[in-house]
Each structure stands twice: as structure tokens, then as C-alpha cells.
Amino acid sequence: MKNDPNHAVYIRLMRRLTPEQRLAIALDLSEFSKWLFIEGLRKLYPDLPLAQFGQLVRRRLEKCHNRNY
């Protein structure tokens, strides 16, 4: 990855941001990742009732090493 020219551009851009801006980006990426996770499950189980779907999401998240959800 160090030889990837896009990575160098990314690092240069990130260094220009304030800590607050970098934190906002990190939080946005975290929310987007959670949304992708839930949408992926919804595509796998499109007919699952909402209550059961919520239980499924919680069970899957419990398996995560990062418990910040």
C-alpha cells in the first residue's frame, strides 16, 4: 500500500484536516459501515419480520470484537 500513489494523496489530504474534521470522517465511516452491515443482512433475509430482524442484527453484532455499536 505504501507504493500506491492514491494512498499518498489520501495521507496528504488527511494531514491538511483539523483533528475535528478527521474525527467527523471517522464517525461517518463508522456509521456507513454499520448501515452497510444492516443492509447486507436485510438483503439476505428480506422477508424476516422487523422484530426478528432486530434480534438477528443484535446477535450478529454481539459476535463483533468491537463492541462500540
Distance between the termini: 29 Å
Strand fraction? under 5%
Give the biggest beta sheet: none
In round numbers, the mean pLDDT is 91
Which blocks of ≥5 consecutive residues have pLDDT under 50?
A: none
Radius of gyration: 17 Å
Give the overall shape.
elongated
DSSP summary: helix tally: 3
Structural class: mainly alpha
- Overall number of strands: 0
The helix-strand sequence is HHH
User: What is the number of domains?
Assistant: 1
Q: Estimate percent helicity.
A: over 70%
Write the topology of this structure.
Layout: H1 5-16, H2 19-44, H3 50-62
Walk me through this protein's architecture.
The structure is a single chain. The chain is mostly helical. The chain has one domain. The chain is 74% helix and 0% strand. It has three helices and no strands.
Give keywords:
69 residues; mainly alpha; 3 helices
Summarize the structure.
The protein has 69 residues and is mostly helical. It has one domain.
